[in-house]
UniProtKB/TrEMBL annotation:
The entry's keywords: ATP-binding, Kinase, Nucleotide-binding, Serine/threonine-protein kinase, Transferase
Keyword Kinase: yes
SUPFAM superfamilies in the cross-refs: Protein kinase-like (PK-like)
Protein name: Cyclin dependent kinase 18
GO cellular component, one term: cytoplasm
Transmembrane stretches, start-end: none
Species per Swiss-Prot/TrEMBL record: Denticeps clupeoides
Keyword Amino-acid biosynthesis applies: no
Length: 301
């Protein structure tokens, strides 16, 4: 038999088509392996989702499959194959060597402004493609931005993504890793649109440019405290309805005044290029829910 296995023995939709080469990571419901396709000899990522857990577990997988099947873009990870067995649902993705978190770690959290712009441009391209199709990613973070050896960045892990029929459709507020979560969602809002992703974009841009996370809170209260300490404690005049929010009132935040963003990045050199970057961050993380720009309006788009 030839080096490439016969199609009569293997093919799409069959576990036998793929060889596991090692574990890449593990979560509550899924384990990701590095693998190789016997059909193409290409490397792949095998995301095995266990189906024996409680009822809610497969929902994120079904959502990811249904969305990714219709998302074809150079800056969105490609779903090659789907394999369904009694105990497991395996999603076969293109393989990328690294992610933005690993990239930042490997370069000592010191990225060149050229690379910051290149990665941000690619992130905004992929996100704009999603938003134009009324899809929110809802879980943007460096670990979900995959990077290959050619410097191509691709959005991945659409398990929390949702298609939105109207901008104010109600969703769960239990989305987005804490550090990249906007304050309205932290305060329990379930009515949100594309700004949830744009807040994450601003936090990621700051992290790439400065080498440190913007709001590394360990609890919801601490996360909100970090946000308000930099951006000012919201008032009714700037955020309609905030004074009636029970969770906001229960925390008794001090009345902080907005601080210049440069104060949050003391080692940042204030050249024109860096000033523009901080301006882009500030635009993305506006406190008012309706304020953040769209992907296409972003300076790096």
């Amino acid at each position: 038999m030839s080096r490439r296995a016969s199609l009569s023995d293997i093919g799409f939709g069959k576990l036998e088509t793929y060889v596991k080469l090692g574990k890449l990571g593990e979560g509550t419901y899924a384990t990701v392996f590095k693998g190789r396709s016997k059909l193409t000899e290409n490397l792949v990522a095998l995301k095995e989702i266990r189906l024996e857990h409680e009822e809610g577990a497969p929902c994120t997988a079904i959502r990811e499959v249904s969305l990714l099947k219709n998302l074809k873009h150079a800056n969105i990870v490609t779903l090659h194959d789907i394999i369904h067995t009694d105990r497991c649902l395996t999603l076969v993705f293109e393989y990328l060597d690294s992610d933005l978190k690993q990239y930042l770690d490997n370069c000592g959290n010191l990225m060149s402004m050229h690379n910051v712009k290149v990665f941000m441009f690619q992130l905004l391209r992929g996100l704009s493609y999603c938003h134009k199709r009324k899809i929110l990613h809802r879980d943007l973070k460096p670990q979900n931005l995959l990077i290959n050896d050619r410097g191509e960045l691709k959005l991945a892990d659409f398990g929390l993504a949702r298609a939105k029929s109207v901008p104010t459709k109600t969703y769960s507020n239990e989305v987005v890793t804490l550090w990249y979560r906007p304050p309205d969602v932290l305060l329990g809002s379930t009515e949100y649109s594309t700004p949830i992703d744009m807040w994450g974009v601003g936090c990621i841009l700051f992290e790439m440019a400065t080498g440190r996370p913007m709001f590394p809170g360990s609890t919801v209260k601490e996360e909100l405290h970090l946000i308000f300490r930099l951006m000012g404690t919201p008032a009714e005049e700037t955020w309609t309805g905030i004074t009636a929010n029970e969770e906001f009132r229960s925390y008794h935040f001090p009345l902080y005044q907005p601080q210049p963003l440069i104060n949050h990045a003391p080692r940042y050199t204030l050249c024109l290029e860096h000033t523009q970057t901080l301006g882009s961050v500030k635009a993305s993380i506006a406190l008012e829910v309706s304020e953040p720009p769209s992907c296409t309006m972003h300076p790096y788009a």
